[in-house]
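As the next step, I selected for study a record pairing a protein sequence with its backbone structure tokens, which the following lines show:
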Amino acid sequence: MSQVPQNIRAIVSQALEKRAAEGTPVPQESGPRIPGKALVPVLNTLLTSEFVAIHQYTGHYAILKNFGYEKLAKYVLEHLNDERRHTDMLAYRIAFLGGTPEISAALDASLGMTVPQMFANDLAKEEGAVTAYNDSVVEAVNAKDTVTREMLESICKDEDHHIDEITTYQGQIEQMGLGQFLVTQL
């Protein structure tokens, strides 16, 4: 876990201690008030995965821009922005459920140095994300948390769309050859 959440916990703890010393009522934890509170660890795992995707897409975007593949870079930037939006959604939901958004320092982004490697690495991440989101939807259903379930389904649809786009590009490379494909991406 990064330093930011620990600092936040320390600040909140100090504020609660100050309130108690002043005789101001301190809110007590009374167990899950919101059905999905038990989902916070699952959501934090998904949040970490989204940060990994952001790192990976950021690297691929930079490499593609450097190669001069403007159209492909724009496509990767759109995915990058989707992943950023997903982190926002997950972090806000975690906070709403009473948890602390956590960011793991161990990011296992897999950068490709060629376009086919990038697509292969991105496809693997997206397929893993779809599996994780589908599993998390089941957990949200079991927790009777419709709002979290709907959010997870929405993100899963985005990830599934990313898979469709990646496999379409891979098919184009297979049909026209890498050189011809890359010419179309200038």
